[in-house]
Structures
1.
Amino acid sequence: MSHIRTQIRQRFKTVLEAGLGAGYEVYASRKSSWNHTSGTALVDMRILNDQTQSREVMGDARARTASLYIRVQRSAPEEELDDALDADDLAVNLAIEGEDWSNLLEEDPELMQVNTADDAEGGRAIGAIVLRYDLEYRIDKSDPETRIP
Amino acid sequence: MPGKFINDDLKVVFASSEFGEADASYGGVTVMGIFDDEDIEVETGEGVTQIIPQPMFTGRTVDFSGIARDQTMTVRNETFRIKNWKVDGVGMIEIFLERT
């Protein structure tokens, strides 16, 4: 087993790979610099702000909330970049919404925020869209590898 | 306006037998110049430096007197969109291209 956060990222990777299909490279971790010479989009992710939501006086069960940041990076002709990033957002959304998360999370992932970034200095504009999903999961504080149903 | 001697010199430098591109055209007319497609580093603001080629054509200003954004030019059988350009004031122009 591995930490529940690792399991969550791996699950998202599996779901996104199946849902996004060809044209995307999906990583269950941060993925840094790459060469934009093809039309492939790069999808990476990280979990931030993982915190205990409520402490139960009796017992060791803990409900935790965390933010999963899914980032899609791609290059495209300038005037097509925003449309392409919106299409990425849509594809990620559909993949996540189409999954049953009940055996891992307390509730479905909730899309909370979307941001974009870009640079058009090169021969093709490079852009990124970052989707922040809030997650809730439940573990025993002494066993962060095992989800408590 | 550059002197004739500068245009003559540039013709020599940009000749395909020297440093120039043999296969470049703008507005359907063959033009002389040097084509670069070097990798550059750019920041998307997302914390990592990305690498992407920046196609660029250096030619004679006189060959691009009507240049405008979103026009196209062809180099090595590839069509590029003209993004922007820099004129040096003495006969040369650097054109930054976008892959279509």
Note: Chain B has one helix and seven strands.
2.
Amino acid sequence: MSREAMIECEGLTKRFGHFTAVDHVSFKIEKGSIFGFLGPNGSGKSTVIRLLCGLLQASDGRARIAGLDVARELEQIKALIGYMSQKFSLYDELTTHENLNFYGRLYGLRGGALKQRYDQLIALTHLAPYLRRRAGLLSGGWRQRLAMACALMHHPTVLFLDEPTAGIDPVARRELWDLLFEFSGAGMTLFVTTHYMDEAERCTHVGYIYMSKLVVCGEPDDLKQLPLVNPPDARRIDVTCEHVTVGLQALRRLPGVRTATVFGQSMHLLADKDVSEEFIRAKLAQAGIPHADIRPMAPSLEDVFVALTQQRDNGGDT
Amino acid sequence: MRLPFRGFNAILYKEFLVVFRDPLTLFFMFFPPLIQLIAFGFALDTDVKHVATLVLDEDRTNESRELIDQFINTQTFRRVGEARSITGLAEAIRRGQAYVGLQIPPGFARDLQAGRTARIQVLIDGSNSTIASSSLNTALNVGFRNAMLRLAARTGLHDLPVEVRPQILYNPEMRSPNFFVPGVIGLVLQIATMFASAMALVRERERGTLEQLLVSPLSRWGLMAGKLVPYLCISLLMAVSLIVIMQWVFHVPVAGDSRALLLATVLYIFALLSLGLLISTHAQNQIQALQMCMIFILPSVFFSGFIFPRETMPWIFYAIGTVLPATYYIELQRAIVLRGASVADFWLNFVVLAGMGLAVFSLCALRFKQKLA
């Protein structure tokens, strides 16, 4: 049933002095997966990527990529992995063409092989109109494409992307994800950190790191089935109405309503099973909202992460 | 299989592009050394000539006028005026109107004729030691020679019993540029090359591109060599232009083999760039790198023998000079440019420079951590 594991770590730990940035993180990512790695700022996402790429030495635990040990067989691993850092590390003085050439040569590509891969990636990323432009003068979306093309020059089988969509417009974001699905279809394993829940929903697998610890890891659908997220004596309700902020104030105070959050034009409630639709409707009417559309709903990934984070903060254990 | 210089080609390709894309860096490499050479070359002139001199002739005889002429004829003194009194003379020196005051008291000629010791007084401004010591020597010499000639005449001799005929080798006119300009080249080369290579890795660290290099199969030796070679080429070009300026602007001819000079320059630049790289691997940001460079550059101005001879220094300063590449290069410059020395004459200096370069470069590659923390 389980396919070949491309990225594995066991008890991976990184301490900087007295601060533990990554605390005994273990997971396994299969070949061809798109692994979404989520967590608040400073929770240890980038540190995990850097540990897996061999940029940082683990204080404890171990990591393997394509069956090779990161601590001992890093040189072989380097040829297999691509890394796109948070800052899209490009040489601003060099043109698109020169950046691609440089990264190709860095990985030992030359002559025909270099040219072929170069053409392939230009076609894939549509960078052709910008070949002579300096990287420093490209806009965010194009910089990101170029950085990705650079990271892909040497045909990596595992690609690490550290917040690839931060500060990128929605169109570029969607196009990037289309590319990622294409790569994944071709057998590449992708490890992506992000802040966006909609991106997390697209991943085949997700992990959530909070305060240096991996809180949960698995397929999005499985995570939504977790008992913690779906308490047996409660249900999730979507309430769509006018003046949601007013409605929120009214519903939050109701006995039996455990959490209430606004989502655009609607509110998501986690309420005890015995809180009826009529009861909610009546309370909204009292608050001056006569009409409301009330439906049961499935939990989102965000609900999963919120539930898990709250449980951690309350000192519980998974 | 691991190639020791893997990735060298790629880094070389990139570094050359980056250097020529960034005119500001190139400008800061080339321009200050040129200006420094010209400024230092003209300003560092220790030839003491035509020192402003006030005369107080209270004797007003042929003998006194003859003595004054002897002073002026040395070219060391330049008569800028007359003083009325000895206090006026001292006052003028205090105000900086003259460095030297020459007083010939009344009765100078009379004492001479009577065979008594005729006294004259020379006031010298001691606040500038170079001018003071040179003026003192010349004044004593003039007096001494004058006295000897009179003694000789009295005993019926026509010539002095001993005559010293000094011959200044290699720099017959004792021109300061000949002494200083070769040394200045050593100093200004140091500033430009060290700053350039000290920035090389720090900039990548600051921009985050270093991470990208570290995840690649690039080897440490490949990275270091790829960073060093472009700067070696540029620095060499700069060194050659400095030497050309030395010959054409300061008229200091290269007496020795120019290939020996070139070899010395290549070794020196290699050592300096390696030092810069070493700084670059340890500094966290550009400011830190600059400060670390200054730690090397400042002592070399004083302890390399550039201005003060090393032999007379306290042992600690002598020891500092021993570990500075500039010490060996400045010595070589003067030996080759002025004295026409060959590689064989100064082989030790060549070996030391080459050894320093190789040792520091190896240290860079071996100690460079391919990790972020």
Note: Residues 205 and 220 of chain A are 6 Å apart (CA to CA).
